[in-house]
Amino acid sequence: MYLPPAFAEHDPDALRALIAAAPLGMLITAGPGGAMANPLPFTQGLEGDRHLLRAHLARANPQIAEIAAAPEVLVVFQLGEAYVSPSWYPTKAETGKVVPTWNYAMVQARGTARLIEGTDFLRPQIEALTEAQEHGRPAPWAVSDAPERFIAAQMRGITGLEIEVGALTGKLKLSQNRTEADRAGVRNGMIDEGVPLARLMPDPGS
After folding, report:
1. Is beta strand 24-31 parallel, antiparallel or unpaired with respect to 72-84?
2. pLDDT tens digit string along 148-184?
3. 167, 111 Cβ separation under 8 angstroms
4. Domain-wise residue ranges, the chain
5. What pLDDT score does 97 carry?
6. 97-144, pLDDT tens digit by residue?
7. Which residues partner with 38 through β-bridges?
8. By CB neighbour count within 10 A (0-12 exposed, 13-18 middle, 19+ buried), where does 169 fall?
9. CATH number of 5-119+159-194, picked from 2.30.110.10, 3.30.450.20, 3.90.1640.30, 3.60.20.30
10. SS3 per-residue string spanning the chain
């Protein structure tokens, strides 16, 4: 990934928090069948100094064979994107020397994947994934709310996936290369248009 220093995020804790905020990652493989990409919701955890991403795939998913043949994978977590209009920059009125651009935030995780069969992995993974999304809801649903035989049948149709992350890279392109006034203009413009990415831009007045 092209990563100018102004947009780079290197703090592992910050990167893991960003993944937790946008857990639907794009799993990308490059096996014998060529490049392949599928969106999967991930959970994550730390075991000592190992950062692990966990998910599951449908048994019918052809990416399973690609992972078995070539386990080095890339997962891309996209936290948001937005067009940036030059009209948001105060610099437009001062010099006119502005052009449109695009802001976005993403985390890329590279690592080695392994496929895991059996309920010892799958049951905790689906429970953790469910808990992460249901937590705080007025009437949270739990895996145990469904009939046990039904859940067992569902798990027979999926395969577990665990990725040991070897490299974690964050790119937050949030107008850091602009003046403070221009950054404020972009943030305010996004807020006015209801763009969620604005939440990642610091408030200049705070």
Report:
1. antiparallel
2. 999 999 999 999 999 999 999 999 999 999 999 999 9
3. yes
4. 5-119+159-194
5. 83
6. 889 999 999 999 999 999 999 999 999 999 999 999 999 999 999 999
7. 27
8. middle
9. 2.30.110.10
10. CCCCHHHEECCHHHHHHHHHHCCEEEEEEEECCEEEEEEEECEEEEECCEEEEEEEEECCCCHHHHHHHCCEEEEEEEEEEEEECHHHCHHHHHCCCCCCEEEEEEEEEEEEEEEECCHHHHHHHHHHHHHHHHCCCCCCCCHHHCCHHHHHHHHCCEEEEEEEEEEEEEEEECCCCCCHHHHHHHHHHHHHCCCHHHHHCCCCCC
CA 183 – CA 185 distance, rounded (Å): 5
**The pTM of the whole model exceeds 0.90:** yes
Tokens matching residue 149:
């035989």
96: left (phi over 0), alpha (psi -120 to 50) or beta: left
Q: What's the Cα-to-Cα distance from 68 to each of 37, 63, 115, 160, 170, rounded to whole Å?
A: 15, 9, 7, 12, 27
In this structure, how many other beta carbons lie within 10 angstroms of the beta carbon of residue 45?
13
Q: What pLDDT was estimated at residue 205? A: 65
Nearest Cα to 107, choosing from 39, 26, 176, 15? 15
